[in-house]
Amino acid sequence: MNPVLPEEAVQVAEAARRAFADLGGVELARYSETDPKQREKIVVVLSQLGLDALDPRTDPISLAAAAASCAEAGRVALPYPLAASLVRDSDGRPTVAVPNSQVRVDHADLFPQWRVGTLDGGASFVASGAGQALGTRLGPFVGPLNDLRPTEVNFGDILCQQLLVSWTLLGALENAVSLATFHVNSRIQFGKPIATFQAVQFQLADAAVIVAGLRELAGFTLWRFSSVGEAARADVLALRLHALESARAVFRTCQQLHGAAGVCDEYDISILTRMMQPALRLPAGIEQTAELLADAVTMNGFVGLFPLGGRA
Q1: Are both 107 and 163 inside the same structural domain?
Q2: Residues 6 or more apart from 47 whose CB is under 8 A from it?
Q3: What mean pLDDT do residues 57-72 have?
Q4: Given this model, what pLDDT does residue 265 score?
Q5: CATH number at residue 277
Q6: How many domains does the chain have?
Q7: Tens digit of pLDDT for each residue in 278-304?
Q8: HSE-up (13 A, CA, CB side) for residue 238
Q9: Is 232 within the bounds of a domain?
Q10: N or C: which end of the chain has fewer CB within 10 A?
Q11: CB 59 within 8 A of CB 66
Q12: Do the domain assignments include residue 305?
């Protein structure tokens, strides 16, 4: 595999970063909570970027461009289900993985219909979007889907959406480290920036290493999925599991480095962490994802340095 994204994908990501910054960056997510209509601006920008015509399932370059764009969306906690909308069907219905029990998705109100499926591949439906978000701690825009009608949804589309969600989390974590770095260099205690304290340096270095490792795995999984499609089920689940574990550690560290300000919405790190909760909890948290991964490895095997069950 080549860990470097294609130049075309890099250019798409750079254009997306500029466009999302022009929308206000994290400020857009902050304002959208009190005025959900702010999200309508995003649809126009996505069209201008050509992302409404991008299909990550067509070729490796399109998949890489979609992943890089989702990373930029995660960087600013873009209040829009970009990963789901990129994996849409011919009728424009976004595709998303959902829990086996309560069928809930982020930004359920933005589309009249959704294509949904479970991560174990056991069920798939077409569902109607809800008019009202639940307004719970799960996420300000998470809502239930109604009128579930069984239908055949390509499981590869479900995996593709989850792959893109992991890239969204990657972008959010990269920005979290950037925000923490800026804060510790700006915060003065005892006459000097707290970035000069060794304990702070160690924490920040650990977080940066975690994110760098996640990017490497995300790049590998991108290549693996583009090569074998649905057969990369274990790889996609492994990436999601690692993204969830990385997020738990990195968000905690970056908020702690902000001190009490880390949980105040005046600071971007708080908005970023809160807006990523749906991606962290839906369709499955760490424990459930680990169980799904174990089942996938048992059923389909896992490509690695050592054979499954082998001795070190």
Answers
A1: no
A2: none
A3: 97
A4: 87
A5: 1.20.140.10
A6: 3
A7: 999 999 999 999 999 999 998 877 776
A8: 20
A9: yes
A10: C
A11: no
A12: no
What 3 state SS string does the chain have? CCCCCCHHHHHHHHHHHHHHHHCCCHHHHHHHHHCHHHHHHHHHHHHHHCHHHCCCCCCHHHHHHHHHHHHHHHHCCCCCCHHHHHCCCCCCCCEEEECCCCCEEECHHHCCEEEEEECCCCCEEEEECCCCCCCECCECCEEECEEEEECCCCHHHHHHHHHHHHHHHHHHHHHHHHHHHHHHHHCEECCEEHHHCHHHHHHHHHHHHHHHHHHHHHHHHHHHHHHHHHHHHHHHHHHHHHHHHHHHHHHHHHHHHCHHHHHCCCCHHHHHHHHCHHHHHCCCCHHHHHHHHHHHHHHHCCCCCCCCCCCC
Last residue within a domain, chosen from 128, 154, 180: 154
> Are both 62 and 99 inside the same structural domain?
no
d(CA 231, CA 302): 10
Q: Are residues 184 and 256 in the same domain?
A: yes
My answer on whether 257 and 160 are in the same domain is yes
| Whether pLDDT at 306 is above 60 | no
| Tens digits of residue pLDDT in 7-55 | 999 999 999 999 999 999 999 999 998 999 999 999 999 999 999 999 9
- % of the chain beyond a pLDDT of 70: 95
For residue 65, being part of any structural domain is answered with: yes
Which structural domain range is residue 171 located in?
Answer: 156-300
| 48 and 58 share one domain | yes
The alpha carbons of the chain give a radius of gyration, in whole angstroms, of 19
Q: From 58, 86, 114, give the residue that closes a domain.
A: 86
Q: Is 307 among the domain residues?
A: no
